[in-house]
Amino acid sequence: MLALMFTMLLVPAQDPSVEITRSEELQAAREDKAQHLQAPTRTSLEKALVDFKEKRVMERFQAGFLGFHPMVGGMKTGSGFALGTSREITKGLSASAQVSFKGYQKYEIVYKPGFLNDRFFAEVRSTYRNHPQESFYGVGNNTQSEDLASYRLEDQTVAGQFGVRLGKHTKVGTQAGWIKTRIGDGTSSRLPSVGETFGPETLTAISDEPTYLRSGAFLDIDYRDEPGNPREGGRYAASWSTFKDRGFGRYDFNQYDVEVQQYIPFFHHRRVIALRAKTTLTQAADNHAVPFYMLPTLGGSEDLRGYADFRFRDRNMVVFNAEYRWEAFSGLDVALFADAGQVAPRAQDLRVRDMKTSAGFGFRFNTAKNVIYRVDVGFSRDGARVSMKFSHVF
Amino acid sequence: MKRALNLVLVMTFLVPSTFAQKFRADDPVWVDNDAAVDVKTIAKHKLNDHYDFLLHTFKKPGDRTLIPAMNANTLGEVPDSSWFQNRHARTRMTIEDLVRGPNTGAGPSMNDQWTVIAAKTEGITPGFRIRDSRGHVYFIKFDPPQNPEMATAAEVISTKFFHALGYNVPENYLAFFTRGQLRVDGKAMMTDDTGRERRLTESDLDGILKRVHRSDEGLYRAVASKQVHGAPLGPFQYYGTRSDDPNDIFPHEHRRELRGLRVISSWLNHDDSRAINTLDVLAGDPGRRFVRHYLIDFGSTLGSGSVSAQKPRAGWEYMWEPETALKRIATLGLWDKKWIRVDYPNHSAVGRFESQSFEPQNWKPEYPNPAFLNATDEDSYWAAKMVMSFTNDEIRAIVKEGQYSDPQAEKYVADTLIERRDKIGRYWFDRTSSFDNFTFADGELRFDHLASQFDFSRRPDPCGEWFIFDPVSGTRRPYAEEEIPAAGMFSQVDITSAEGKVSVYLRHSDRGAAIVGIER
Fold first, then answer.
1. What are phi and psi of B326, to 5 degrees?
2. What pLDDT, on a 0 to 100 scale, did the predictor assign at position A346?
């Protein structure tokens, strides 16, 4: 077309009596084109993308097949990449099943009554989990990485929760449930089982496998702008739980969780200082102990990122995280972070000078509302660790 | 505004010439009849916006040769066509005409209930299609809940500006209605969140309305966008031509009205100026069918980003600029572009729109646009003249049509448009000689100097030289003493100044001389 137009414009001068007008020239070009019309063509990529959208492939994938919805990731930290499916059985009642490449399994039935209005919320949940390769480095703040061993944790839970929304940002509630735990040898071929490395004084309740009745209450004040990718606001959550050992009377304990998050934006929210403090404290009655697999843990992609998952565990844990996040372009944030945390047998033993520290950088592929994929590289005395997750750190 | 300063250059008519190929008998052409060839068959084309982004971001579609616009007439103006109609800048419209814009009525009839015939429930922008008692079909679009009035005002205001500027746009009306105004058609279908098509119900409609802002009086505010006449064919591209449209012979990236749209988009902050927001329709009667080209969807203009306030990056940076991203990463975010420090008003109905930091020359849409990238100084000069054609009062009158409930918001938007207009004029009139508005009468060539007329700069001293121009050979020679051009001859006047040169061409006839060409 371009060549044609140039040709037309370069027609040599003619006798005035036969000179065609500009309009006639354009008309001639159009009539000429009319003789050579072609149907528009598309590249295969364009075709594929048009079809993808037209046929609503993504929506249909999310909607599932015959009521089964796909689930990607979302299992416990350390489980590896997981796939699963969920299905709504009747309104409010749904079931799900997930399996990871490391053999972790989770099956769950959830009932959320539909008769409550927006002010109240409630749910009943029955869960079976099988975690065959849980990491264990011992108990305390000075465990060695070479002591890593594994164990299998199986538990069954039936739990209920009821709460009320006190406003747009605040909710309080209570929860109760029954938990049956079972411990076994880890299935990892690379690691010894915990029983081979640690003695019963460390592996509290390993042979008893107590059954618990759990009850508690929680308060959650959340005014983050986008919970999936916050840039402004804060979250303040506290909960209390009591675990009553129904079989042996030796493993009763209380657990207190407090978490504070604060986000300080600047430069149109394209820079964010993100801060978090989080602690879990347990308190066992006299002559009672907390099973080793229920002790608060520290380390990994969610808190102390220069260390391996569950690198430290003890009765009490505290961790502080600070991140400076900046936008590289719409869709990617970069972060520099510093973490400090500690576990200790007594709350009064938690001290800044004893804290384990790590620092690093990360990339967060995101939308305005969610982090889709996160890569964090953390450095600590244990070395460097790369963690990849389908969710934000906080 | 300063009174126009007319400059006069006196000439003496002399000597004859021959006919011209550079200038045809019908130059300057003011109407390009691109509806002349009947469109017998034409395909409906669907565009994938992700593909469009990838194509324009990672490839360079279209011809990027730096050549003058191909459809401009010999005066440098854009002839009327199925793309563009000269309006306010050529023949001044009254305030009433400007505020009416493309509208032919008062919007959807309120005499009876509207019938909802289709709905869009997925995505973040809910909306639906209605038929009123007159049988007219409208698309109903809402403001984001956190920014009442913002997107609807932007859509209505920008529609009127684009119309006055000469582009084809839909009739967009502000509409206020209650839930009782709506009833769902028994055959209405919708696509739900799972991608499945099913019947639309009254409760689906309630669900849509739950997601939009409702006033204390129970009124919903929306834009009712009337379906344009003709069969929709899908969007047009900003490059190439439609291979199945015989009338589409100028590559779009070389059309002056599309190249100049960059300057106009910078004024109105239309960062969403891309193919997905255009529409071709098959218009005309059987045997005389042609394609008419529309700009649609102005929800992402001014301070509105359609679904939220405009992004602070909008107008400053493409979505993907690898060099910029790498610089940010390498400097730990200490380096950034100017927009990161721009202050915007804290007004939910306005969104992010300002004039203080606005730089017309650096303005960018969401991703590269071939026509914008091909824009020459002449294209931008043409567009700047269009923008400058609006007086302060005209701008205020059009902005009033946005019906902001807060007079401060209305004033702010109008003031911002006025300041941005002046920045555009100041910059683009300085890029080339702004001697313009040429007329020839009584042996005198008269003209204005636009930059000084608008107080942007001091008028430079012009120097005029007259020549006899031979359009066949393209050569010229000085007038001989006592030479008087005969009918059919051409004169060339070179007006030089510190700003550069403008050449004006005149065709002489028995009735006198007429301006047939302007070159900058």
1. -65, -40
2. 95
Q: Do A34 and B37 touch (CB under 8 A)?
A: yes
CA B423, CA B359: separation in Å to the nearest integer? 8
| Tokens (6 digits) for B80 | 């009327």
CA distance A30 to A26: 6
Residue A181's identity, in one-letter code, is T
Best B22, B30, B31, B51 residue to mutate vs chain A (most A CBs within 10 Å): B51
> In chain B, which residue's Cα lies nearest the Cα of A52?
B48
Query: Among the residues of chain A, which ranges form H helices?
Result: 2-9, 22-34, 44-54, 57-63, 194-197
In total, the C-beta contacts within 8 angstroms joining chain A to chain B are 148
Q: Are A103 and A153 in contact (CB under 8 A)?
A: no
Instruction: Report which secondary-structure segment, H or E, holds B155.
Output: helix B150-165
In angstroms, the CA B148 to CA B376 distance is 39
User: What's the token pair of residue A148?
Assistant: 């890593």
Rounded Cα distance between A215 and A253, Å, is 11
Q: Residue B18 — pLDDT band, cuts 50, 70, 90? A: very low
DSSP state of B381: H
d(CA A85, CA A106): 11
Ramachandran quadrant class, B195 (left: phi over 0; alpha: psi -120 to 50; beta: rest) = left
Are A50 and B51 a contacting pair at CB < 8 A?
yes
B472 and chain A: CB distance < 8 Å anywhere? yes
Contacts of A39 in chain B (CB under 8 A): 43, 243-244
Return the closest-CA partner of residue B116 out of B126, B129, B107.
B129
Q: What is the DSSP letter of B77?
A: P
**Cα–Cα distance, A205 to B84 (Å, whole number):** 82
Q: Which of A9, A38, A56 to mutate to test the interface with B (most CBs of B within 10 A)?
A: A56
**What span, in angstroms and rounded, lies between the C-alpha atoms of B181 and B111?**
9
Question: Is A46 strand, coil or helix?
Answer: helix
Q: How far apart are CA B512 and CA B507, in angstroms?
A: 8
Q: In B285-383, at which residue ranges do the beta strands (DSSP E only) sit?
A: 290-295
DSSP state of A40: -
Give the position of tokens 């929304």: A165
Considering only CB atoms, B27 lies closest to which of A16, A22, A26, namely A22
Which residue from A minimizes the CA distance to B338? A267
Query: Which chain A residues have a beta carbon less than 8 Å from that of B252?
Result: none
Distance CA B77, CA B383 (A): 10
Smallest CA–CA distance, residue A379 to chain B, in Å, is 18
Q: Say if CB A258 and CB A279 are below 8 A apart.
A: yes
Q: Residue B273: its pLDDT value, please?
A: 95
> What's the length of chain B?
520
Q: In 10 A of CB B151, how many CB atoms?
A: 31
Candidates A90, A161, A158, A88; CA nearest to A121 is A161
Average pLDDT, chain A: 91
Choose among A380, A382, A318: nearest CA to A351. A318
Give the CB-side neighbour count of residue A264, counting CA atoms within 13 A: 6
Select the residue of A2, A57, A267 nearest B341 (Cβ to Cβ). Answer: A267
CA B93 from chain center: how many Å?
17
pLDDT by residue (tens digit) across A156-181? 999 999 999 999 999 999 999 999 99
Q: B25 touching A, CB under 8 A?
A: yes
Element (H, E) at A122: strand A120-136
Cβ-based contacts of A31 with chain B (< 8 Å): 37, 246
- pLDDT of A274 > 90? The answer is yes
Residue B142 in this model has a pLDDT that exceeds 60: yes
- Asked if A56 lies within 8 A of B329 by C-beta distance, the reply is no
Is beta strand B7-10 parallel, antiparallel or unpaired with respect to B444-449?
antiparallel
Assess B343–A contact: CB distance below 8 Å, yes or no.
Answer: no
